[in-house]
Structures are given as C-alpha cells and as structure tokens.
Design brief:
This protein is α/β, with parallel strands linked by helices. It has a single domain, classed as Rossmann fold (3-Layer(aba) Sandwich). It is built from 4 helices and 5 strands, in the order E-H-E-H-E-E-H-E-H. The protein has a 5-stranded mixed β-sheet with strand order 2-1-3-5-4, with helices on one face. The longest helix is centred in the last third of the chain and has 29 residues. The two termini are 27 Å apart.
Length: 169
C-alpha cells in the first residue's frame, strides 16, 4: 500500500522526529482503535518516534504537531476500506470559540498558521464495527484490523527513517 509523501521541505536539521497521535474513546468499544494502536506502538520503542493518545484532538495538539517533521493521526473509522486506509492530510479549517474537538486538518492548519511549522501529515483510519455500545475492548474484526495497521505503520515509519537518512548523506 503506497502512500504519497508530500514534498514539504524539512526545515530542521538532525534526526527525523515523528509523532503518532492515536485518538478516540476506549470506553466506546472500537472507537478505542487509535489509542490502542498508540499503546502498542509505544511498547515497540521505535527511535525518533513519539507516541501519544487522547480522547479527542484539541488546540493544544498543534504545539506537539509543530515540534515534529512527520505526524500520523490515528483514529477508528466506520467507512474506510478494510482493514485500514492511510492518506495524506493538508491543513484546512479554523478553530472555533469553545471547540472541544478538532479534525486533524484543523490541528495541522493551526500548526502551519500560528506556529509556522509544516510537517508532513497523514491520517491512518482503522476500520471498526462496534461503536454503539459502552465498554472497553475491541471487536474481533477491529483486533484483526489493528494488527494489520500496526504492521503497516511500523514498516512505514522504518521506511520514512531510512529515506531521511539517505537524503541527509
């Protein structure tokens, strides 16, 4: 599964810094796919990769986004292809007064506009099926899709690190 890489010039020197931000509500079954991937990825301890999890994206996340060269927003999805879909994100939207939840495009827009940072950004949408109930735990389908997405993101991050090392030599 090839993912196009935006050609935004990297402004920082030194090692590539990557942020993987999983978000969703683990108390709503498959809506917890984003935080669950973040938890699993964090255990891997990949060098140069910062991992965070949240219930929802907020304005404060723009500062973390601005501090990285590559950002991957991870969330559950009801309509993406099985088992997951990864797509580039471009900045769009403006935060509104008393907004409690933002889209990845809006967080990225804030990083570009207010913090003058232009990281590469992607959304990794993982297909889930059980969003109606309350309770922790993933459906069988969501667990399979999580496993596939985790294998993909690990390889993607390794390829990004490798391509950056080659570009800097």
């Amino acid at each position: 599964m090839g993912v196009p890489i935006p050609t935004t010039p990297r402004l920082r020197s030194g090692p590539m810094r990557v942020l993987v931000l999983g978000y969703g509500n683990p108390g709503r079954r498959d809506d917890g796919l984003g935080p669950r991937l973040a938890e699993e990825l964090s255990r891997m301890g990949l060098p140069g990769v910062d991992v965070d999890a949240a219930y929802q994206l907020q304005a404060e996340d723009a500062a973390a986004v601005a501090d990285h060269d590559v950002v991957v927003f991870v969330d559950a999805d009801v309509s993406c292809p099985d088992p997951f879909e990864m797509r580039p994100v471009l900045p769009a939207g403006e935060p509104r007064f008393s907004t409690h939840s933002l889209a990845p495009e809006t967080v990225l827009s804030m990083a570009w506009k207010y913090l003058e940072a232009k990281p590469e950004a992607y959304v990794l949408a993982i297909r889930g099926e059980d969003f109606d109930g309350f309770g922790e735990g993933l459906s069988d389908r969501a667990r399979r899709n999580l496993s596939a997405a985790l294998g993909f993101i690990e390889k993607f991050l390794e390829e990004r690190a490798s391509s950056c090392e080659k570009a800097s030599t």
